[in-house]
Amino acid sequence: MKYLSCTLLFFVSFTLASAQGGLPESFFDGKSIVLVSADPGARPSLGWRQLADSVHPYLLEAGADPVAYFELEQVILSEARQADFAKAFATRQVKNVVLLTRKKATLSIHVGPFSGDGKIISTTALFGITGKDWDDAGGQLASSGKDTRSKNLLVIDVPEFPQISSQETAQSEQKFLPRNPLNLEVFKMGIPLEGSSAEIGALSYFRYDLLGKSQETILAEQAAQKSQIQVIMEDLYPHQIEWLTEAKTNEELVRDRVQFMLVKVEGRQADLMKSMGLEPITDEEGLKTVVKYYIKLIVRDELYIGPEWDADEDWKVALTGFLNNLKK
After folding, report:
1. Which residues, including other chains, have CB under 8 Å from residue 12's CB and lie 6 or more apart?
2. Is residue 1 in some structural domain?
3. Each residue of 237-267: pLDDT tens digit?
4. pTM for the predicted model, two decimal places
5. Do β-strands 188-192 and 258-268 pair in parallel, antiparallel, or remain unpaired?
6. Which residues of 34-66 are buried (b: 16+ CB within 10 A; e: fewer)?
């Protein structure tokens, strides 16, 4: 995997997104999967499945063959989980990815080719349109496809919400280990900064809370994040670290004695626990959106979540708890 210093590229990509020619040819001759991210604070209130129901007719009118809908936040829960979905998409011969993002005052639809690998999309520079609601954005999408004859003939009239089977996710779930890694004092631990790393990929930028953020906001958040992480690491982590802000392959990282990677994931607590092979919390605590840290051992692709569950709504509390548990 590569860790990219892509802050500038990110903003250039979004500048280009709305100016990308037309819909890709494969949109009219191949299966599409739709990933939905919906702001729960938007009004009128709609769950992501209801939003899919509202947009599905417009996708058909535009000429697409949307074979499955998934919640974006579920797909990007972790790098391993995203790789599972990518494998399932490849097996189903998916050609396109449609990203549906609902913010409080707008709804955006982006379309691009399926990358065929764990990134799912290879760039944020996708064809995109934005409207005030699903009717506005959907109507624009339908107009974009009206002059192209679609070869997608046997399409489904209603959206489908399939589950990724346990056989498809078992391999990754077994990689999560509920203990601490060895030899942390021997090798460096890499820390990729949000906004400068392709740790999980371009998909994250289409979350409702990230799409359209200004360059100034991202850079300010990144600087503040590094400063806050540094304070916590200096206090609780006695071993060597390395900030990852440049493109490096796994081989280059290992050559620089970086064998561990600190990984941050965010999602509903029950979903995160289940994806990591743990018995999920079922009450209101399980519905909370929390941050969880774990350590990836690059050379073996093993994921260490620690001996105790330490996720929290506040990332600083989650990181502090995780580092304290590393001492156990």
Report:
1. 125
2. no
3. 999 999 886 656 778 888 889 999 998 888 8
4. 0.70
5. parallel
6. bbbbbbeebeeebebeebbebbbebbbbbbbbb
